């Protein structure tokens, strides 16, 4: 470093730590030079040294006394210059942008000066403004035909005694043009001029705004021969009203659109002629239409299609039968037939269609079938095995897939610039053509990972996020490793923004990771009401790495007037103690209000969370729980101490977290309480729920839920009533009160069970973008023991719902009608809740 150069100490620390690894596998001088150049330094090589001369980034962009109305332009200038290498051309562009905006605001001769100050820590750019005189509209002069002059004058009146605003003037110009076009003046002109006037006070200069309107001749559009379609329907097809210009090009475009419209609505033989007649006061545009016969397709036939393709096209053919002839649909079907042929290797197939009366006939000339006989890779020995494509149809898609496979294979083994070209050799054998596919591979230069730098850390210490860095200097470059690194950082929940950029040099690719730390303190919450829960209060507070330890802290709680409350403090440490795991510790204080009792719990939980794949997550927990049963007449032990091991596995393949419409979600839980762990209870719990969503159309979704659970006592010990299963309420079997689908004791108290089954089917229909209707069927039952489980006697309900969709999930209104009654409850129940039931 030359003296006086501003360098981030954290950057130097990371570079020094990684020098040995990088220098052992690549030319670290060139890698360092490229890296520092990318980071905004000017660099030169001097013998074995890399000399960093200066820091060239613009770190501050300031504005001195900017006139009003420039706020958006100032933001644009900052984006253009700040945190980028100083560039005189970019600076000049910024000045021009500001000048143009000032002139648009009515300033006569504005001036913008830029003062550039160079320091050891980058450049500072200061913009100074001399807006000059402000043009003030003192009068408006309208030059237009009498029938238009008053309207234009009224339109321009608000401009008087106000500064010239060219954006507003152009907007009014377009408004006048739009009215003229709407009245048939397609070649109109609207011109404005600004003329200086004498006088003026201070920096205000009076001007006159002259608006000259040249409407030209009006155009009268006439359609003749149109029997089935109205003037209004056909006029919408014309292009010259939208183009605000009439010429031969727009006339021909309009004629073609009319022809296309007719041929897509049952008139395959239509003819349209367009002519223009100029009269003294108007221009007449005539479209003479010879519609021809109306054709309804009664039968569709395929001739010459190979048998293996016929079945897949039956539905497509039937959609044309009984419908008016549509050239668009015919072409779509022809393209579908060609695609099917080519996907089976008939790459020279031809498809023609003819219309005989009301019969549509597609004639297929498939030609020979091209089949892959062998694949030969030239230029490199592949480190991964090619998919077996021998005997498969030769298609462009197959070739593209093979090329992509080879490129990805080599990119993950140090060759990101690999290029693949296919050279097929054909050998005709009767009706088949065997293809020898030669794939010429140029692997390009090999690369290793150079320096791996993380930038943007302010509170968080570098060592605290070391485990999050999965890409290591000196290892073979892999594109997949970069993607994994990005996912790891994003999933850590420590950063609000993550980007990774490659800096390439001879033999090495350095990775510059830019992060923005999450908020030091953030909060949110809401107040609501639910029929099962009563008044609902929800609050969430989080903090990201407040002590620089790379941890996330959470404090959140829910209060439900009729169901209880829970408060949670959670500490999360990503990538600890191993890179593929997240460690968390949480304390949960929880009260639940059931029909026959209340429960009070304090749970201390240690958890190891692992994201095993894109969709699969695994959670390993050890929990200590202190539990108490109160306000009950149930004969049961009142206090418990539980120690348990819990395994949770979630497979989430839904297309959205808040408003899913497709995919599936499977959650399984296994818990072992007591035995060698100690405590007052010994039992095992197994619970699993599956939900499946499938779209039926653009608006309809069918949703299915199946679930069940079992508890087995160990060593003859009873399972606490508060750990047993209960159903009923807005989230399980709607129409029933929360927790009232349950076995009862001799006094009628709901005491829960050791096994349950649950089934739900729901049809969701979007009537608008954010409004959804639903019809549902819910069924479930809780059994005293596992041996009592059976598929009969379940409590079921049917109902309907209305949902208002928000970005974080739906506000839900459901009514469920009981198909099996519970004593003391009505025929149904209305539920207000938030989020989907499943």
Automatic annotation (TrEMBL):
It comes from Thermovibrio ammonificans (strain DSM 15698 / JCM 12110 / HB-1). This is Surface antigen (D15). Residues 220-292 form the POTRA domain. The keyword Membrane applies. InterPro entries: Bac_surfAg_D15, BamA/TamA_POTRA, D15-like. Signal peptide: none annotated. Keywords: Membrane, Transmembrane, Transmembrane beta strand. Pfam families: Omp85, POTRA. It is found in: Membrane. Residues 548-838 form the Bacterial surface antigen (D15) domain. It comes from the Bacteria. One of its GO terms (cellular component) is outer membrane.
